[in-house]
Amino acid sequence: MKLCIVTHSLLKGDGQGRVNYEVAWEALRQGHQLTVIASTIDPELAQQARWVPVSVKGLPTELLRNLAFAWQSAQWLGRHRSEFDVLKVNGAITPVSGDINAAHFIHSSWLRSPSHTSRVHKNVYGLYQWLYTALNARWERQAFRQAKKVIAVSEKIRQELVEIGIPRDRIQVIVNGVNLQEFHPGKAERLKFGLPESVPLAFFAGDIRTPRKNLDTILQALTQVPELHLAVAGQAEESPYPYLSATLGLSQRVHFLGFRRDIAELMRSADLFVFPSRYEACTLVLLEAMASGLPVITATTTGGSELVMPDCGRVLQDAEDVTALAQALRELAGNQDLRQQMGRASRAIAERHSWKTMSQRYLDLFEQVRAA
């Protein structure tokens, strides 16, 4: 099969880029001919695949960089599209119709969210974010409608695609994967992270410079669970949450660790994972926590929450419900046996979602589309 993937990035440490990275490597392992149109790519992957570099350096905003990428990729595909059996794109990344389009984020749904940046920042930055989201919502709706098949990375995204007019029978859900060797159950030494021993410890990881990840609700709930500590991985500079934590009297129990690359080891130091994001397509960190054998507390607004069964965690119907979140935290903080039981169930679910399993589902769909 002659396959072409169009994506901004193919890097192991990038969310959407990681998905494409894994699919690309699996395609190469199975002997397919792979061309990648991208701005950044893993150096080793660039040696194995045909890489068409698209430079967007120097442009001042994400919107302009995306427009430049779209124009350059379209120019190249206009000359070479006929060379490929399957063209796989991501959202509105290029105006050229993809055979398969992967939906990692639905901008029209994000635009309606009460947590959208334009509702938080009533200034020029907020206006720019509104324009950026509105334009992407329009472009991606057209891109999804043109595709033969659309991949939704969660059941939440499938429903959002249906809401913007994509026929349900053209949508296939393929949940993101996880590295089961890197993320695994175990016990890590807390003291090396400056975390207290012999106390129940919850863990949160995400961008804490934005309200979208919902750390504020977690902090509010934590005031009702005095025995529980919280470790927070995320860049604290320009974040309002260290101040909020101090204001709520939580400075001794909330531990801000900054941006981290050792998330897997940090997860092994924790007792549970809490992530009730206000809007998420399908976060990788949710599956990483489950693979680490942690019980999970999340919300229906977090894509991928459909994986969290009652025997491995709690899913809040309302991400803003402080009382319900506090109740879930209290239940797990006070019951070590329940945490261990849920952790085993979490790991069992994660083992069905390795990167290899995910990549094979992508390749199976590519073959179906080529055959059709």
Keywords:
alpha/beta; Rossmann fold; 14 helices; 15 strands; globular
**How many helical stretches?**
14
Sheet/helix structural class: alpha/beta
Helix share, percent: 40-55%
The name of the CATH superfamily of the largest domain reads: Glycogen Phosphorylase B
Largest sheet: 7 strands, parallel
Major sheet: arrangement of strands: 5-3-1-6-7-8-9
So what's the CATH class of the largest domain? Alpha Beta
| First-residue to last-residue Cα separation | 13 Å
CATH fold description of the largest domain: Rossmann fold
Question: Radius of gyration over alpha carbons?
Answer: 21 Å
Write the layout of secondary structure elements.
Elements: E1 2-6, E2 9-10, H1 15-29, E3 33-38, E4 40-41, H2 43-48, E5 50-53, H3 62-80, E6 86-90, E7 100-103, H4 107-112, H5 117-120, H6 124-146, E8 149-152, H7 155-163, E9 171-173, E10 201-205, H8 215-222, E11 229-233, H9 241-247, E12 254-256, H10 263-268, E13 272-275, H11 284-291, E14 296-299, E15 313-316, H12 322-333, H13 336-350, H14 355-371
Parallel strand pairs: 1-3, 1-6, 2-4, 3-5, 6-7, 7-8, 8-9, 10-11, 10-13, 11-12, 13-14, 14-15
Helix pairs in contact: 1-14, 8-12, 11-13
